[in-house]
CASP-like protein
Amino acid sequence: MDKAGRLEKGDASKVPVPVGANRGISIIDLILRLVGIAGTLSAAIAMGTNEQTLPFFTRFVQFSAEYDDFRSFRLFVVVNAILAAYFVLTIPLSIVHIMRSAARGSRILLIILDTIMLALLTAGASAAASIVYLAHNGNSSTNWLPVCQQYGDFCQMASGSLIGSFGGIVMLILTILLGAIALSRQARRVL
Amino acid sequence: MDKAGRLEKGDASKVPVPVGANRGISIIDLILRLVGIAGTLSAAIAMGTNEQTLPFFTRFVQFSAEYDDFRSFRLFVVVNAILAAYFVLTIPLSIVHIMRSAARGSRILLIILDTIMLALLTAGASAAASIVYLAHNGNSSTNWLPVCQQYGDFCQMASGSLIGSFGGIVMLILTILLGAIALSRQARRVL
C-alpha cells in the first residue's frame, strides 16, 4: 500500500502522454515490418539464385560456384526466408495494435518473438558476411585463396544480398525498441 | 475516457500480481548477467590466447596459426570482451532494480542496450562459428582445404570458445524477455 502510494505520487507529476501516442508507434512498427519484408525477401532471392559458371573448363571439371556449396550461404537463404515469412505473419498483429493500442499481452509476445528472430537473422547474416569477407580477401595462414577474382559476379551478388539482410536486422531492433516504449507508455497512461 | 474505463474494467478481472514478483525477476536478471560475464569472458580469453605452431618447418616457413590471422576471430575476441564489460557495467543497474522494483525508465534503457548488445554478440559469435565450420570441413568449390587436421589444438580451442559466447547470447535473450515481462507487470500492478 505504501509503495503503491509512492508510485502514484511520483508519476502524477509527469506530463500525461496523449492517447494517440501508442497508435503512432504501432503505425511506425507496421511500416518497419513492411521494409523488413522487402529487405529479407530480396536478400533470400538474391542469394538463392546466386550461381556462376566460369567460361573455361578442363576435360574433367567445369568450374562453378553456387550458394548451395557454402553451408553459411544456405543458412543465410533459409534464415532470410523464415524472417520474411515471420514479418508477413506479424503484420496482422501490428494492425491489431494500431486499432487496439491498449493491447499488452500481444505486445510482450511480439517483443519476445522479435528478439528470438533478431538473434536468428543476425547469426545468418554475419555467418554469410564472414564467408564473403574470406572470398574477397582469402587467408594466408590456412592457404585459403581469395576466389572473388575468379567468381566476380558471384561475390558481388553475395555481398549485395547482405545489405537486405542487415536492413532486416535494423528493422527488428527498432521494432523491439518501439514495443518496449509502447509497453512503458501504457503503464504511464493508465495512471 | 471511454477507453480508459474499458481498460480498467478489463484488467480488474485479472489476478493481481504480488508486490514481490518484479523483485524475483530482478534477482534472476542479476544471476543471468553474472553467468553472462563468465561465458563471454572465458570465450574472449580462450580465443585470445589461441595459437598453435606446427612441429615441422621448411627452410623459409614455420607454419603457425593464431586467432589474429582471422578477422572473424579478432572480431570475436573484441565483441566478447565488450560484452563481458557490458555485463559488469549493468550489474549495478540490476541491483537497483532489485531494491526499487518500480523503476521503469532504467528498465527500458536496459532492454534497449541488451537488444543492441545481443545483435553485436550474435554477429561476432556466428561469424567465428562459420570460420570454425570451414576449418573443420573446408570447401571444395573454392578449394579451401580443411585445416583442422593440421591445426587440431587450434581448432578445438576455437570451437570451445564458441560455447561461452553462445551462452552469453542465451543470457541476453532471457534478460530482454524478463525486462519486458517486468515492464508489463508494472502496468498491471498499478491498476
Q: What stands out?
A: Chain B is about 75% helix and 5% strand. Residues 1-17 of chain B have pLDDT under 50 and may be disordered. Chain B touches chain A through 62 residues (CB under 8 Å). The beta strands of chain B are 51-57, 62-66.
